[in-house]
Amino acid sequence: MKRFRRQTLTGLVALLLATAGTLWLYAHYCPRLPGYAFLTGWALLTVMLLLTFYNARKKLPFLPLGNSETWLQIHIYLGCFSVVLFLVHLKFHLPHGGFEITLAALFALVSGSGFFGLFFSRVLPRRLATRGGEVIFEKIPALRHGLRTAAEELALGPTAKSPAIGEFYLRRLVPFFAGPRDFWRHLAESRRTVTALLAELDDLHRTGSEAERATVDQLAALVRQKDGLDYHRALQLTLKLWLFVHIPLTYGLLIFTALHLALVFGFSGGAR
Amino acid sequence: MPPAATILERPQRWDAAFDPAMGDDAVDRLLATEPFSGMKAEAFPKRTPLREILRNDTRILRFRKGEIIVRQGDYGTSAFLILRGATRVVLKPDLAPALLGRQAPGKKGVFRTLSQFLNGWRPPESYSRARLKQDAALGARVDEALETRVFLQDIPRVLDQHRTEQMIAGDFFGEIAALSRMPRTSTIFADSDDAELLEIRWQGLRDLMKYDDALRRHINRIYRERALASYLRATPIFRYLDKDQLARVAEAVEFATFGDYDWSGEYKRLAQAGSVRPEKEPAIVTEGDYPNGIVLLRAGFARVSQKTGGGERTLNYIGAGQMFGLREIAHNWQTKTAPVNFQFSLRAIGYTHLLIVPTRVMEEIVLPSLPPDDLPSPVTATETETDTPPPEMVMRQKVGAEILEFLTENRFFNGTATMVIDLDRCTRCDDCVRACAATHDNNPRFLRHGPSAGRLMIANACMHCADPVCMIGCPTGAIHRESFAGQVVINPATCIGCKSCFNNCPYDAIRMVDVRDQAGEFMVDQEMKPITKATKCDLCVENHGGPACQRACPHGALTRLNLNNLDSLTRWLQK
Lengths: 272, 575
Prior knowledge:
The complex is a heterodimer of chains A (272) and B (575).
Chain A: H1 3-29, H2 36-59, H3 68-89, H4 98-130, H5 140-156, H6 163-178, H7 183-187, H8 192-207, H9 210-267
Helix pairs in contact in A: 1-3, 2-3, 2-9, 3-4, 4-9, 5-6, 5-9, 6-9, 8-9
Chain B: H1 24-31, H2 50-57, E1 58-63, E2 68-70, E3 78-84, E4 86-92, H3 110-114, E5 138-142, E6 148-152, H4 155-161, E7 163-168, E8 172-173, H5 175-180, E9 187-190, E10 195-201, H6 202-211, H7 213-233, H8 243-252, E11 254-259, H9 263-272, E12 283-285, E13 293-308, E14 311-319, E15 323-324, H10 326-334, E16 345-358, H11 359-369, H12 391-399, H13 401-409, E17 418-422, H14 431-439, E18 452-453, E19 456-458, E20 479-481, E21 488-490, H15 500-504, E22 511-514, E23 532-535, H16 548-552, E24 558-561, H17 567-573
Antiparallel strand pairs in B: 1-10, 2-9, 3-8, 3-10, 4-7, 4-9, 5-6, 11-16, 12-16, 13-14, 13-15, 13-16, 17-19, 17-24, 18-19, 20-21, 22-23
């Protein structure tokens, strides 16, 4: 069996077994166990700290702490299991009170952003590899500027002699080359903007002179390149942005969890 | 009107002499010295006369006592003839790495490992004085030709602790390493203050051997005595031979070199111009020829190709230690009624040094010794690409035509630890880059960018080449292999920033950096010029756990692979 498939299967089986075991324990001991909330709470906190330590592992690459790939696998399946533990800790009831609702919402957001991140991490790289060449994210503004300058030179530069192309450039291409475009469309794999622009350029090509046609061909190539850059920007930005949600929320969740602990031990004489 | 053509004088072989200062007097002196005095000038062709070979392909070097001439493990492109004085070869034990300008192999200790926590607050490429301090047992001077010479400070101690042997005027050394492009096997230093040596670059040595029987016999004899027997003994198909049979094989083996010794500088330009095509590479074996011997690759790489349409397609490439032609010869030996010719072509990529074991010797000695199971399957007429592909085609099918051509044309097969990224899994998170920076003086030693084909990208990182051209010409031995066939590393203490490795690397994997002190100020010399050091990926050789980049990838998208053969790549692609 291929390694990735074996890895997924092992993780899923472990998750299912752990979930089944936890639910069995819940069904049998929840009503009878006096320290039920205490036990499930500490278990959940342990799991959350283990999950958080993955970020610390990333900051310590020089220590022999194992492969990040293995850590991520553990992070994914332990993250899924933490949802089960969370529900068991809540006894499958909705939280009540402002603090508990905030805490639960934070947990849901951290988990949700994690699932989104996992989905993006598995889906978007494949799409990036098939379109737009390979671009370093930080270099995109410079490349975009280069394309804009080249297009402007073609349409409005000293050697440009076509009013029709100049007018088209000012009307349609200036906004297109001005900055990143169509974030959501690219994410949704829609090519509406570039298709429309290329269709209009095709019209110009049909009606233009020999010299104009050559210019239009070059402009069309630049439009395709810019579209590829925008595509890469949208997808790479998404791959980076979800972490900017996931990680700060994680620390927020940990702070609220610490407060939760303080409240539990301060005002109720320990969990019951 | 068509543009005017640019007219140039056609480049000639000796446009750049090894030493432009080599004058008539020096050449006359050499012609009066053995072995050149015994060579017949009329045996040399008019375009490469003996006199011009000596004038253009040699140079005279003078060394003082203790100065290192060649280091064990270095890659050299020239041989040496002692003209005057004496040199000394270190036999056993080998000199300590520090005495050769290298860093001692080993992992970081606990304190140094933990101190990397602070790397984030340190200026990039900052060094302490202690870290850049050279070993006290080693000195350096710049000679009259502005070349850096490294010398041993305490020769009596070296003589006391190591078994050495003196070499005197008339002795040759370094010829096997130069011709076969193998690492030097010993360290040799000057044993007198007036040591004068003739350095012959490999092109000159090749021509001298070609046109002078005595020199050729001499070098071939040395080769057979020193290198061949042990090499044949380690080759699997000869493992059933007894001592006498092995000696008979060794006696019959022919040596050959193909391709351009200085391929590294030229190949990139050709690749960019799209003119690196199989049919332009020198043919070692041509498809359809009679199989007159098996080819054993001793150094370099060769492309297995097949005619298709008007060109040739790559089926596989083979590197040092692999062989070609066994299947056809075994087939003809087994099925005498239906002999076959070579089924595929073999072309040298870059520089290739090989051994040819003649068919007669194979049939009389080697093939009868092999158990039937070790013989390759006979060539059959029904072999097709899709149903029962011949072994040579299997790799093309596993890896894919696009990737195979890509790896071959870009010479990536040279890498023993090539950074390969699977673009289908890479999320461009740069965790690999950050891990590299955190492990190496706060400055990453590679770029997560490079040429790609299909789902593979070869990142711009040192590949720790099987043929490390970067190591040729380092004056201080700062760039070296950590072990005999291990990682190529640079010792910052002995790197003088000469850019020799930087210019030699055909993959642009070495960077020159201006180093800083621990306060973040640039270090300068007495003339206020910045101190520059060569840096590159060292495969985290000092760190515990292996390469940080590979360990830092959360998605298993980055790995370091030995591309000398395609087995590991195939396994990784199919994971």
